[in-house]
Amino acid sequence: MFTDVSSFRRSFPHDIAVSPDGKYIYISSYLITDN
């Protein structure tokens, strides 16, 4: 998916959080997988 975290954050300027197991990234109320 995104390899550059800074580009990722610029693309989604919302609250970003990674799940405790590090497998998922939460963007606002949306959930996307890391692949």
Describe this structure in words.
This protein has one helix at 5-11, and strands spanning 16-18, 24-27, 30-33. The chain has one domain. The protein has 35 residues and is of the alpha+beta class. The radius of gyration is 9 Å and the shape is flat. Strand 1 (16-18) and strand 2 form a beta hairpin. It has a three-stranded antiparallel sheet, with no helix packed on it.
Number of distinct beta strands? 3
The helicity comes to 10-25%
Low-confidence stretches: none
Q: Approximately how much beta-strand content do the residues carry? A: 25-35%
Q: Numbering strands along the chain, what is their spatial order in the largest sheet?
A: 1-2-3
What class, by secondary structure content? alpha+beta
How many helix segments?
1
Q: Which whole number gives the mean pLDDT?
A: 63
- Into how many domains do the coordinates divide? 1
SSE run: HEEE
Sum up the overall morphology in one term.
flat
Radius of gyration: 9 Å
Describe the largest sheet: 3 strands, antiparallel
Distance between the termini: 6 Å
